[in-house]
Amino acid sequence: MAEIEVKNGLFKPEIMSKELLRNLDANSVWLDCVNRNWEGEIKNQGDTVKINQPGDVTVKTYVKGTPIEYEDPKGNQVQLVIDQMKYFAFNIEDIDAVQANIELVSEYFKRARSGISLAKDSYIATKGWSEIDAGNVLTLEGNLTKENAYGTFVKLRTALRWANALQNNGRGFDGKQPYAIVDPSVYGVLLETEQAIHATTAGDETIRRGTMLRFAGFDIKESTNTEQKPEKHKIIVGTTEAVTFADQITKTRTLQDKDDFVAHCSGLYLFGAKTVQPKALAGVEVQLEGEGE
Predict the structure, then answer these.
(1) Using CA of residue 218, residue 224, residue 227, residue 228, what is the dihedral sign?
(2) Interacting residues of 91 by C-beta distance below 8 A, sequence separation 6+
(3) What is the 3-state secondary structure (H, E, C) of 6-74?
(4) CATH number for the domain whose boundaries are 136-242+279-286
(5) Alpha helices (H) along the chain
(6) Checking DSSP bridges between strand 218-222 and strand 179-182, what pairing results, if any?
């Protein structure tokens, strides 16, 4: 097979890569809840991004006339490993006809994008929950109801505050409201609470992308990619400092089959995530009324 020379920009590999990454960012719920501070250069599976975390600096009392003592803060280094690989590959029959049908071409890439977004969001969701600091995993006695939902989220916020993940103004050190990611069933319970029913708009205040509701100091984001057990629903809250994420579409290509009037389109997507501040996450596993009965 030989690589096709296509004039239509939709089929140029570099254009395909940029469009896919742009649309992936716009269609991901979890991506707005992580940071990408350490993206670096990603070319192959197994690439690592080295993250240097500073140690604490001691504040001492100054006494006039006494020497200043300097310390060597002991930080640590963690590695974000790019260990996830996903690809898409599909055939386009009669390349000339398809080029004339922009809507059909766009639909193929929308479906590829949806599949990658699902895989990426599911991965980040699992990563975040599994690495929450043990002291920030709460227990709810009984079911989550419209009567106790607000109090439950207040407790989650309190856990983040005690862990110094929030500033005095209630925001994370990213300047944003902390987020809470819930599945549609839990979101339905929140909508029935008095606080949600009487909620007002945020006016000119910036709300993070995908926010469905502001509740107990959290930007509530609804996702079907929340890790679940039978009759159990996981609620994760936190700030973007907690998890770092890096991704790259490293290869896209369009090849013409030498034996048929078919073009082969494919792309390789690499990504990885690392929880760098477990105390900037909190969570609770809940059951809803009527489930498991």
Answers:
(1) positive
(2) 262, 263, 264, 265
(3) CCCHHHCHHHHHHHHHHHHHHCCCHHHHCECCCCCCCCCCCCEEEEEECCCCCCCCCCCCCCCCCCCCC
(4) 3.30.2320
(5) 13-26, 95-99, 102-130, 149-162, 184-191, 194-197
(6) parallel
Summarize pLDDT for 21-38 with one digit per residue, the tens.
555 555 678 888 998 887
Provide CB contacts within 8 A for 259, sequence distance 6+. Answer: none
Nearest Cα neighbor of 29 from 265, 220, 200 is: 220
Domain 2-128+245-276 has CATH 3.30.2400: yes
Q: What is the distance between the alpha carbons of residues 281 and 165, in angstroms, rounded to a whole number? A: 8
Percent of the chain past pLDDT 90, that is, above it, reads 31
Contact indicator for 166, 157 with CB cutoff of 8 Å: yes
Pair of tokens at residue 107: 């639909």
Q: At 248, list the tokens.
A: 């790259």
Which pLDDT tens digit goes with each residue over 141-153?
999 999 999 999 9
Positive or negative, the CA dihedral 232, 239, 36, 279 is negative
* Domain locations in the chain as residue ranges: 2-128+245-276, 136-242+279-286
